[in-house]
Write a structure and sequence with these properties.
about 250 residues; alpha/beta; TIM Barrel; 8-stranded parallel beta barrel; 12 helices; globular; binds phosphoenolpyruvate
């Protein structure tokens, strides 16, 4: 069954004490509340173990924002998927446009990261999305198809079924510009069709596809009301409980 999910991506924000306070605040806000979605927070690596120990991880899943494309060894400064899993985190965000753009992560590198994450029992939240020039040239469908095929379509159906996909138009990330609900639905439905063509209708129907890009308490309801929008990946608005909770409650 397809799950509704609201996931926060804290990016490179919060010191450890600030991150712990934010996670505990969210934990408190969710206590005793029944919500129609799963909630995940993507924290910096340094916070993962402490955050996982401080909150109810049955209620709030913990995600890393990256992992290495190598299993282990002499890769100074890298953090492996197995290390992430050993903190209590259950998810890892991979393929975020900031990593593709600033750290030159290619489809091949991301393919390795996805494989290693799955082998460590992590659920990847795999991001795809076009830049503004690609959208204006009408190329957004082919761009997301290439991103899916380039990193994910060698996976077995069983492994593909463990993924969460996040469609994040790069022009909407951190810009205050959101895709309209109709624009989001159009491309989410397209992504689901591309998945169905490769893995069949059941796997496509069960796949959670999140929207990301300036989602907030004001626009979340319209977005998640669309049949193929199963939740959101939230950057800026995940950094305060007051801004994040209305998105969680948008279902
Ligand atoms: C993101 O970074 O994944 C994101 C969607 O950011 P924002 O919500 O700030 O646009």
């Amino acid at each position: 069954m397809r799950k509704n999910i609201i996931a926060g991506n804290w990016k490179m924000n919060t010191t450890l004490p600030e991150g712990l306070a934010l996670a505990k605040g969210l934990n408190e806000a969710l206590k005793g509340k029944s919500t129609k979605c799963d909630v995940i927070i993507g924290t910096p690596f340094t916070h993962l173990a402490s955050v996982a120990a401080a909150i109810d991880t049955q209620r709030i899943g913990v995600a890393a924002q990256n992992c290495a494309d190598k299993e282990k060894g002499a890769f100074t400064g890298e953090v492996s998927a197995a290390m992430v899993a050993s903190t209590g985190a259950k998810y890892v965000i991979l393929g975020h446009s900031e990593r593709r753009q600033y750290y030159h992560e290619t489809p091949e590198i991301l393919k390795e990261k996805v494989k290693l994450a799955l082998a460590s029992g992590l659920k990847p939240i795999f991001c795809v999305g076009e830049v503004l020039a690609e959208r204006e040239a009408g190329k957004h469908f082919e761009v997301v198809d290439a991103q899916l095929k380039g990193s994910l379509f060698d996976l077995s159906p069983e492994d593909f079924g463990k993924l969460i996909i996040a469609y994040e138009p790069v022009w909407a990330i951190g810009t205050g510009k959101t895709a309209t609900a109709d624009q989001a639905e159009e491309i989410h439905a397209h992504i689901r069709k591309t998945i169905a063509n490769k893995y069949g209708k059941t796997i496509a129907d069960d796949c959670t596809i999140l929207y990301g890009g300036s989602m907030n308490g004001g626009n979340a309801r319209d977005l998640v009301a669309k049949p193929d929008v199963d939740g959101g990946l939230i950057g800026g608005a995940s950094l305060s409980v007051e801004k994040f909770m209305p998105i969680v409650e948008a279902f």
